[in-house]
Amino acid sequence: PGCAVQAAIAAETLDPKRLSSYQKLQNELAYLEQRQDQQAQLAAKQRWKQIHKQLRNHPKLRQ
Question: Which residues, in sequence order, are CB contacts of 35 under 8 Å at separation 6+?
C-alpha cells in the first residue's frame, strides 16, 4: 500500500483488519477479472499443464 496507508496503520487510525479485508477484496476482483478474460484463462491453463507435467516427470516423485 501507499505511504499514507502505512502512516495510518502506524498512527493506528486504520485498523489492520480493514486493510486485510480490502486486500482480500482486491485479490478476489483480480481473480474474477482473470476468469472473465479468456486469454488469461488459456495462459493459466497452459502454465498449470506445464507444472503438472514437470511434477509427473520429477525424479524424486517417480518410484
Answer: 41
Q: Model pTM greater than 0.85?
A: no
- Per cent of the chain over pLDDT 70 is 95
- How many whole angstroms separate alpha carbon 16 and alpha carbon 23? 11
Give the angle 42-43-48 at the CA atoms, nearest 5°.
100
What is the residue whose three cell numbers read 502512516? 7
Q: Where are the alpha helices (DSSP H) in 1-63?
A: 3-10, 16-36, 38-56
d(CA 8, CA 18): 12
Alpha-carbon distance of 6 to 18, in angstroms, equals 13
Specify the residue for cell string 525424479: 59
